[in-house]
Write a structure and sequence with these properties.
With 204 residues, the chain is mainly alpha-helical. It has helices spanning 2-21, 84-93, 102-115, 117-120, 129-132, 152-161, 175-203, and strands spanning 54-55, 58-59. The chain contains 7 helices and 2 strands; from the N terminus they run H-E-E-H-H-H-H-H-H. A two-stranded antiparallel sheet has the order 1-2.
Length: 204
């Protein structure tokens, strides 16, 4: 009886060894014991997944502290969705909370020259360096017919979500920085319109 037992154990071990080593693909590990113990399921805890979505393994991240904004949730407190309707509503209801002070304009200019000037140009006429080099299509001039009456709410919405060929800048610019850039863009627009008006008077 003992010999039969050892024979059975030996044959079982041999079969298991053969099965685990008989994989055709060299990358195949064959039969594994308790694979869930050493094959972890990767989760991206700071991705834009819903913070309240449950996975089979449980929550992938604890809920954010009350009063804080989750990383990557650009629309967490922003009430207007990334739709045409949201764009129009932002234009009607959203107003710049920052005053037009020299300090805010100076900061807006600094941020503009870092993130915007290469496309929109030094004067806001759509003739940035990569446009002049014919690396990118020219965006509309701030004081051209398409944008000269654009509300500041639509500007903020476009910076937040992106518009046409311009991508979202929500991850690069805080809401306060976006408003400061808008103050500077409005200053560029006023200067451009005044320059065109003076040129028209001189021509007459």
């Amino acid at each position: 009886m003992r010999n039969r037992f050892f024979t059975f154990v030996g044959l079982t071990g041999a079969v298991l060894l053969w099965v685990s080593c008989a994989a055709k693909d060299p990358r195949d590990t064959g039969v594994e014991y308790a694979p869930q113990m050493y094959h972890s399921i990767p989760l991206e805890p700071y991705s834009q997944m819903d913070y309240y979505t449950y996975t089979p393994q449980g929550k992938h991240l604890i809920e954010p502290v009350a009063g804080t904004v989750p990383v990557g949730k650009i629309d967490y407190l922003y009430p207007f969705p990334n739709t045409n309707e949201g764009y129009e509503e932002a234009g009607k209801k959203l107003r710049n909370p920052l005053p037009k002070t020299p300090e805010n304009l100076a900061e807006g200019k600094r941020v503009y020259e870092y993130y915007c000037i290469h496309c929109h140009g030094e004067k806001g006429n759509g003739q940035g360096s990569i446009v002049v080099a014919e690396k990118f299509p020219a965006p509309p001039s701030y004081y051209g017919p398409q944008l000269k009456e654009l509300p500041e709410g639509k500007m903020f919405h476009s910076i937040t979500y992106g518009k046409n060929l311009m991508g979202s800048h929500a991850s690069q610019l805080t809401p306060e920085e976006r408003w400061k850039v808008i103050l500077y863009v409005q200053a560029l627009r006023e200067a451009g319109l005044a320059e065109e008006a003076n040129a028209a008077k001189s021509a007459n």
